[in-house]
Design goal:
The complex is a heterodimer. Chain A is an all-alpha fold. Chain A contains four helices and two strands. Chain A has one domain. Chain A has a two-stranded antiparallel sheet with strand order 1-2. Chain B is an alpha+beta fold. In chain B, 42% of the residues lie in helices and 19% in strands. The two termini of chain B are 21 Å apart. The chains are: A mainly alpha, B alpha+beta. The interface between A and B is large, with 37 and 42 residues.
């Protein structure tokens, strides 16, 4: 991705990625709502997004020669550490999924994802307008 | 694209819950199946769910936090002893006049069925939300 689109789209591409990772984890939680011993997990959205934007602000150095060291962490960039949820009520079979809570968080996260999509869409149409120069 | 994995995850949940509903249907259907020996009596079946961890499935995808599908680890038969009932007129009665009925608790099975159908529909909700998000992502930049 060229730097102009990077700058134009801002943090929303990273937000989109974090949101989609989070959706995936929440879907796992809901799918395993009846699995004995399963522990519900979630991402810290704010921490991951901060980290992603810091990575971007720090600037990445290209590796053009053999022997150059990459400054970016491994593929993905987002330090992907899932945290375990603290259960509201313990269940005898060791499962910590609270389906209602997971649904609420899933819905909230879906809205976040759509918001990021809308932001990117409006940035893109702004860019297009600027390029047309009518 | 990460969202497409959700289809696998929720799909596995749908199939697991379907198996659970199947065993419940089988238990309820056979709740009154009599037999002439305690060993031959029907035994209630229960699926055992287990998590599938897709750890580092793809090369270059060092996610470190696996998304988890669910699978049926096995179907276990209940060990509850069959209920003996004295019914000498029954064609299957043994020499003492007893028939043996499976120890299936109908109320328990119905409650389990409600739980399974709730879990099924929440996975369907997740699927439809994901589908909508993916469609919107595909239309990115067209507006």
């Amino acid at each position: 991705m060229s730097s102009i689109t990077d700058r134009a789209l801002g943090i929303h591409t990273q937000a989109l990625e974090v949101a989609s990772r989070r959706l995936e984890l929440l879907a796992s939680n809901i799918a395993n709502a009846d699995t004995p011993g399963y522990k519900a997990r979630d991402l810290d959205f704010r921490a991951l997004l901060n980290q992603a934007s810091n990575d971007q602000a720090a600037g990445r150095i290209n590796t053009t020669q053999v022997g150059h060291f990459a400054t970016t962490p491994a593929a993905g960039g987002l330090g992907r550490d899932a945290l375990y949820r603290v259960p509201n009520h313990a269940s005898l079979d060791g499962n910590t999924v609270d389906t209602q809570q997971e649904h609420a968080v899933f819905a909230e996260n879906a809205v976040r994802y759509q918001a990021s999509l809308d932001f990117i869409n409006s940035r893109l149409s702004g860019l297009r307008k600027a390029l047309k120069g009518e | 694209m990460n969202l497409s994995k959700i289809f696998d995850i929720s799909g596995s949940a749908l199939s697991a819950q379907t198996t659970r509903l199947n065993t419940i249907a089988s238990n309820l259907a056979n709740a009154d199946t009599a037999s002439s020996t305690p060993e031959a009596a029907y035994r209630a079946r229960h699926p055992v769910f287990a998590t599938v961890l897709e750890q580092a499935a793809g090369a270059g995808q060092s996610t470190g936090q696996p998304a988890a599908s669910v699978r049926i680890a096995g179907v276990v038969e209940s060990q509850a002893p069959a209920i003996a009932r004295h019914e000498p007129g029954h064609p299957l009665a043994d020499e003492n006049g007893y028939i043996y009925l499976p120890a299936v608790n109908t109320v328990e099975q119905m409650a389990d069925m409600i739980s399974a159908s709730r879990s099924y529909s929440s996975s369907v909700d997740v699927l439809s939300t994901t589908k909508e998000l993916m469609l919107r992502t595909l239309q990115l930049g067209r507006g």
